[in-house]
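Example 474, ligand nicotinamide-adenine-dinucleotide.
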Amino acid sequence: MKEKLDLYIDGQFIEAKNYVPLYSPYSNEKIADVAFANEEETDLAISAAARASKMMAKMPAYERADILENVVTLLKEKADECARLIATESAKPITAAKGEVARTIMTYKFAAEEARRITGETIPMDAAPGGEGRIAFTIREPIGVIGAITPFNFPMNLVAHKVGPAIAAGNAIVLKPAEQTPLSALFLAEIFQKAGLPAGVLNIIPGHGHIAGDRLVQDERVKGITFTGSPPVGKLIKGKAGLKKVTLELGSNSALIVDDGVDVESLIDRAVFGAFANAGQVCISVQRIYVHENLFEQFVKSFSRKAETLVCGDPLDEKTDISALIRAKEADRAIQWIDEAVKQGAKIITGAKREGNILYPTVLTDVSSDAKISCQEAFAPLVMINKVKSVEEAVKLVNDSKYGLQAGIYTNSVHTAFEAASNLQVGGVMINDIPTFRVDHMPYGGVKESGYGREGLKYAIEEMTELKLICFKK
Ligand code: NAD
């Protein structure tokens, strides 16, 4: 691993004015010194992208697709190295990091495929009086320069969800990765260079959100912002972005409903995975579970038994299931939230133990609906399990949230499944699965404070293009 990492602007690595030390969230050891872009350096990146966007808009679809296909090939060759970078910078357990790299490859693969099928439609103009004698159709044009701002928790795949569709659609891009996870993002620079992407199309500038990120959001030359991160930052960005297109993929306190009559034992492994993968630092992590009263005792017992088998430790150890939270202050916050919930009557079934920045998988029951663990985003290995009398009651509780990303329901009744699907206020409903389910081409995004706009390659391309109507009078 390089010890000093520069900015990547206009096809070159350039020295920055400021370098910031990057520490491992797990061991607190220094990993590297990373260039953090200031406002002038962010401007340089935007200028490079603005120049490249003109050339990019003329690049034929097959060439854009070929470049993305080359990225897929190169990433496959470097998959293990990518996984180590992710595990080192973010403390994601190495097996999960390998999973993320596999998904990243799929995301670029879908981007390459979608690049070849960006189409419009024919409009029957004579459907309206006065429209006779005309034929019209739509095309999709790239919007120009896209500013991408990404979070720490899927540092490679969530970058791919922005860079992939931006390039597939013929845009240029300035990427500002999260402060803690610049390594895997900068690694892409070399990959895209080797894949044949012309200079200036992809610029990567690690930096502070309020400096480099803010500059991207406010610069007139940037025509679209694609942001994944926390709701407070999303709101701030929306307020400052003016008339730019903005896609916001924000947080959630996702819920799972378990109906009476389902086979509890068959879903425990999946539910535990949903709650504790990446130490709960997943936007669709299972945070709230509402279980029918007839199954409640069995569910809590089996779930917490399974949670106790998870191995906590070094992210680079293949046996590790749960490693450090991204920052010590997140572990402090999680402990405070547990204490608050207990003061309000919650019971700790397992966990609530801390070692360094690792929080052991924690299960609480009888959590009050106004405890932070219930109504805010935990983003830690914390899950609450509450008893309900019916799915109807559970749906009300799920909806009693400012968030609405995805929800899951296990039920044996098709009628109950459809009722719940139509009543749940979320962007996606997973029937007989956890809310954490995602494959990378499906439309993905939230309602309420979970954001708006959709990712998933085809849908992200719609957000990153303008629809143009062309009308011929015969
Ligand atoms: P964060 O909001 O703290 O940071 C995200 C990015 O925003 C970082 O790159 C940061 O530097 C930047 N930023 C911060 N302040 C800024 C500002 N003033 N202007 C512009 N940019 C700014 O989020 P995080 O802690 O990195 O990630 C966790 C959050 O991301 C959680 O809320 C999680 O739910 C959410 N998330 C959502 C999805 C989704 O697809 N819906 C996926 C992953 C994570």
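Summary: Residues 149-154, 158, 176, 178-179, 209-210, 213-214, 217, 228-230, 233, 236-237, 249-251, 283, 377, 379, 405, 451 surround nicotinamide-adenine-dinucleotide (CB under 6 Å).
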